[in-house]
Amino acid sequence: MGESMERFVRRAVLAFVVVALAACAGSGSDQSPSPAKSFFVFFAVDSAELMPEANEVIDRIAAEARRIQATGVGIVGYASPAGTPSHNLRLSDQRATAVEVALLSRGVPRAILVRTHHGATPVIGPEIEGQRVEVVVSREQR
Fold this sequence. Notes:
The chain is α+β, with helices and mostly antiparallel strands. It has a single domain, classed as CATH 3.30.1330.60. Helix content is 42%, strand content 20%. Strands 1-4-2-3 form a four-stranded mixed beta sheet, sandwiched between helices. α3 (85-105) links the parallel β2 and β3. The radius of gyration is 15 Å and the shape is elongated.
């Protein structure tokens, strides 16, 4: 796939995730939605294996989803810029899948999970590295 087509596909997927998360947050409801809460699950370089620290974060995500009776949990996998584009895309998918499986095992309903991945992303700060999965938990007000 050419670089311009790859960018187009990534933007389309990102737009879909944004729309899905907005719908999960209850953008069309009569009341203001509960604010969405973001979590970051970090991974070792070139790995999709959950570390003990990651499991602690996933426990908190599952607890938050239960506490607010979440109607949407967005899971977005990323990789660092190192490696080939195809490798990074596969790795970011494996990371997002690992988090999804862990959330399912903690009782988060499959029906509220939305998973995607973006491959390599630039490092956006010392606290937020490329080798991560971002999870957004939201609840629509009724």
